[in-house]
Amino acid sequence: MAEASAPPLSHRRVLKIAVPIVLSNATVPILGAVDTGVVGQLGAAAPIGAVGVGAIILSAVYWIFGFLRMGTVGLTSQAHGAGDRAEVSALLVRALLIGFTGGAAFILLQVPLFAGAFAISPATAEVESLARDYMAIRVWSAPAIISIYGITGWLIALERTRAVLVIQLVMNGLNIVLDLWFVLGLGWGVEGVAIATFIAEWSGLALGLWLCRDAFTLPGWRDPARVFDPARLKRMGAVNLDILIRSVLLQAIFVSFLLIGSDFGNVPLAANQILLQFLSITAYGLDGFAFAAETLVGQALGAKARGTLRRSAVMTSIWGVGTSLVLALAFLLFGGAIIDFMTTAPEVRAEARIYLPYMVLAPILGIAAWMLDGIFIGATRSADMRNMMLVSALVYLGAVLILVPAYGNHGLWIAFLISFVVRGITLGLRYPALEAEAS
Predict the structure, then answer these.
(1) Residue 62 domain-assigned?
(2) Is the confidence at residue 188, as pLDDT, over 70?
(3) Is residue 234 part of a domain?
(4) Are both 140 and 179 inside the same structural domain?
């Protein structure tokens, strides 16, 4: 059994999984800043807007396939914990098949998808034209980037997060170098940014496949009966669908938060948008420990090791709680400076400071939801995740209807934080059933 030969469960093992993920996350905003900075050197506003709009539209579509990473982690970690090496390799192939199929569908449907996106969020004629040029190039790397979600999940499940970091560093590093060459050196403008990303994403896939090459030494990956086994495909489909529904509900809460906030005027809207970046920082800091929970809980469940599962949940959560407290303290002490860095508008700075206490509370009130998400993903208890997210979304809606008319933007923030608390409580109530599954 894989559990018998696994390294002892220790804080060092947790950090070995988590730290590369945190470092990997740190490269994401750097790439976005370089993309913006490079096109900013062209001396016009339209290219900056085009790259921003194009990237947001593509990211929104790719985000739909985020379930592939989460579902692959849970299923693969359980197969690994059970010592089923053939299933581990077959799961990688299934994830790649979903990635290439999803990417191909995106390419085929690009015209109506892009038309719908611009209809919902119209831009000026110049920005839309440049954005379409940008997306027309980048869309051809859709199979690569979606497949990388699956590869990332597979590597995380096997505790190979250093490989995930290598993929991100190489992919983003290559993207930055090509950005500088194509745009500033060759003068290719917005299309140069798109070509750089296209090359980097396919290169990232190639590197990812090479790092997963040991999976292709086992017979499971080329066994059609196993890869296309109806029962296994049905389970993978059910897990991924539940996670997708859960993610859509979570995104609906965030989108509605911004839309409702827009009713209070431009200044509160801008302040809310800036403060949401604090949540991004929190997610970057906590993802590593949530991913460690996914991996270790999944392996323990696969090995039917109830004690190990509980220790995995507790040990990763200790690090998560510690990180959340550090983040809350950092926001308390340096939140004002972070706000000033993000905007020079005096009225927005003042407004954001009014609501900063909610961001100080967010890591503390949200830690249970973040860590339990990781625990439930590892256990593939996706139906519980879906159902508890639905409950939290409904409670959030009720809180908005009651609190916003009475307290305005303060009520909106309170409702937002309530949704985190409810998700943490409801998932916590379902935890005993999860643990019992490992008996």
Answers:
(1) yes
(2) yes
(3) no
(4) yes
**In total, how many domains does the chain have?**
2
Summarised one tens digit per residue, pLDDT across range 363-383 is 999 999 999 999 999 999 999
Same domain for 222 and 254, yes or no, is no
Give me the amino acid identity at 42: L
Tell me: do 432 and 297 sit in the same domain. Answer: yes
350 and 202 inside one domain: no
3-state SS, the chain, equals CHHHHCCCCCHHHHHHHHHHHHHHHHHHHHHHHHHHHHHHCCCCHHHHHHHHHHHHHHHHHHHHCCHHHHHHHHHHHHHHHCCCHHHHHHHHHHHHHHHHHHHHHHHHCHHHHHHHHHHHCCCCHHHHHHHHHHHHHHHHHHHHHHHHHHHHHHHHHCCCHHHHHHHHHHHHHHHHHHHHHHHHHCCCHHHHHHHHHHHHHHHHHHHHHHHCHHHHHCHHHHCHHHHCCHHHHHHHHHHHHHHHHHHHHHHHHHHHHHHHHHHHCHHHHHHHHHHHHHHHHHHHHHHHHHHHHHHHHHHHHHCCCHHHHHHHHHHHHHHHHHHHHHHHHHHHHHHHHHHHHHCCCHHHHHHHHHHHHHHHHHHHHHHHHHHHHHHHHHCCCHHHHHHHHHHHHHHHHHHHHHHHHHHCHHHHHHHHHHHHHHHHHHHHHHHHHHHHCCC
* pLDDT cut 70: percent of the chain above it: 96
Given 169, 198, 228, which residue is the final one in a domain?
A: 228
Last residue of a domain, one of 175, 194, 228: 228
What domain range includes position 338?
241-439
Based on the fold, state whether residues 347 and 424 are members of the same structural domain. Answer: yes
In a domain, 380, yes or no: yes
Whole-number Å distance between alpha carbons of 189 and 229: 48
What span, in angstroms and rounded, lies between the C-alpha atoms of 135 and 127?
12
Does residue 431 sit within a domain?
Answer: yes
Predicted confidence (pLDDT) per residue in 317-339, tens digit: 999 999 999 999 999 999 999 88
Highest mean pLDDT, choosing among 1-5, 25-29, 153-157: 153-157
pTM for this entry: 0.88
- Specify the pLDDT at position 256: 86
Q: Are residues 203 and 278 in the same domain?
A: no
Each residue's pLDDT tens digit, 202-214: 999 999 999 999 9
The answer to whether residues 217 and 245 belong to one domain is no
